Amino acid sequence: MSELQRQLSQEILRRRTFAIISHPDAGKTTLTEKLLLYGGAIRLAGSVKARKAQKHAISDWMEIEKQRGISVTSSVLQFDYDGYRVNILDTPGHQDFSEDTYRTLMAADSAVMLIDVAKGVEEQTKKLFHVCKQRGIPIFTFVNKLDRFGKNPFDLMEEIENVLGIRSYPMNWPIGVDGNYTGVYNRKLAQIELFEEDSAHGQRIIPSSQGSVDDPAFAKMIGAETHQALCDDIELLDTAGDAFDIQKVLSGELTPMFFGSAMTNFGVRPFLEEFLELAPSPSPRETEDSVIKPDQEGFSAFVFKIQANMNPAHRDRLAFIRICSGKFTRGMAVHHMQTNKPVKLAQPQQFLAQERTIVEEAYPGDIIGLFDPGIFSIGDTLCESSNLFRFKAFPIFPPEQFSKVQVKDTMKRKQFLKGIEQLAQEGAVQLFRQPDVPGEFFIVGTVGALQFEVLEYRLKNEYGVDILMYGLAYGLARWMQGKDVTSKPIKGVDKNAIVFDKNDLPVALFSNEWALRWAVEQNPDIQFFESPQQL
Ligand code: GDP
């Protein structure tokens, strides 16, 4: 084994790259911060929170990006814990929800699904879960806000199975009664861990005491009744619940479940430690015709996000890449497959808790930001010139919001076309056109409202074009396949609801699931697909 290989396997083994998926307000920001606190990357909780102040208009948000020179909406946070090198991919939620959120999941090796104990499985969690499930990555569940009243843990397990179709295995179990849990029971070690009352509002790591569930001292501390209830629950879990099966976890069929409170820090450390132990290190990645293993010596990476327009005067952009194999060293020359040109990775950036730093070295699983002179697109491959290949294309995520977009001043039509096509190519929005009106207007599809705002802002600032935008009452797009699909009317689909994507493939737009189902029934000779990749 060469020295490089030895170093590579060591670094790969200790890396954990994951994303936290959740519905807004479940506590993702708080949990992220607590993980940083326990990882020693910040000393007092409260600093990451500031990042969430970005709830203003898009232009303000862009201003913030500029001032800080850092992506506040979606980047990566890195810290070390117990020998592990942890990369947390930030997946924006709220009104910032966009295709970027989905694409970020492409760069993760596992996901932590955060659930509010009172609310259970919510809408955005479902969507994000679906994307993770399709990738087949392991999904860990953290049930949050245990300091408050919420659903019964058994009911939550059932809800996860019914709504998401995944079985769960509680790694630990809350001790106490609803609204007043005091600790967690570790099933593997048959140990109780009781957390001290939080006096610092979760700003600091909280002390805890651990011991065997059979130790009478603990039974006394939590009270005989609570102790008995705990023992009954554990027995039920052991006899009626699933067995722990790491293979099922790794293939995304079983989700290890944890309980805690990101706010009071209750259960955070037990979760972090067990998660790091169970979560996979960087996995092999599919190429167009093979797979690339992380310990392969040749460097490779793909672009999963482009953060544009941090400074409109210079049109500077950051391309975020995920390293898939080999070792990265600053200044190295690699091959960019999509332009078929060499590029020098001269000023790579990495993001720590509070500042960005220049990266000298990085390994598979790590994320770095590259200054992009405008050559990169989502999904692009960087590899060594001695071993050329392309990673498999990113999935196309079905848009859920649609607007009709046209240029305000027809004199600016040329700039408008150039701008909107470039932004679509970059992956900022999906573009559709209606057959009879080439270039007059476009139907723009997105997964979140923020994408429309970004489109409007960027067309104005980068291309000097004002647009008119009208929201359309569609909520679903389906790619169609079948005989005569473009030449005859389609039952249940209005003529205006038939559009064409960038490759001229016919797409039908529907207002809701019901309308789609009706069209499916009425047109047995046509097949409807969620994405063109399924055709
Ligand atoms: P995000 O939208 O998922 O990033 O959620 P935040 O981390 O901003 O949390 C949303 C709200 O829930 C905030 O007011 C938090 O203080 C609160 N919160 C987060 N975690 C907990 C928790 O464990 N317990 C309680 N009671 N509140 C929490």
Automatic annotation (TrEMBL):
Span of domain Tr-type G: 13-283
CDD domains: RF3, RF3_II
InterPro entries with a match to the protein in the record: EF-G-like_DII, EFG_III/V, G_TR_CS, P-loop_NTPase, PrfC, RF3_C, RF3_dom_3_sf, RF3_GTP-bd
One Gene Ontology MF term: translation release factor activity, codon specific
Entry GO terms, CC: cytosol
Functional description taken from the UniProt entry: Increases the formation of ribosomal termination complexes and stimulates activities of RF-1 and RF-2. It binds guanine nucleotides and has strong preference for UGA stop codons. It may interact directly with the ribosome. The stimulation of RF-1 and RF-2 is significantly reduced by GTP and GDP, but not by GMP.
NCBIfam families tied to this protein: prfC, PRK00741.1, small_GTP
Protein name: Peptide chain release factor 3
Provenance organism: Acetonema longum DSM 6540
